[in-house]
Amino acid sequence: MGPDAVELFRVATLKSAIGLFKVGIVPTRGLTISRCFKMAEQYTGKSYKRGQHDEAVKDLTVWIETMKSAIPVVHT
Asked: How many domains does the chain have?
């Protein structure tokens, strides 16, 4: 558990939140799809407009898979 693992979990949660917005569910009060897209932009480097849920999820999935392969796994 380190900062990279925390970021990985944060992005996975963000990806889930965007998926919830797509089907009309607001994950928590105060979180908007615009805020989610701004957060996604920090990781992907791309800006997203309204309706680009699928593209944001796809790009975040690529980021998540890349990070999963880069994080060392320690077996104790």
From this structure: 1
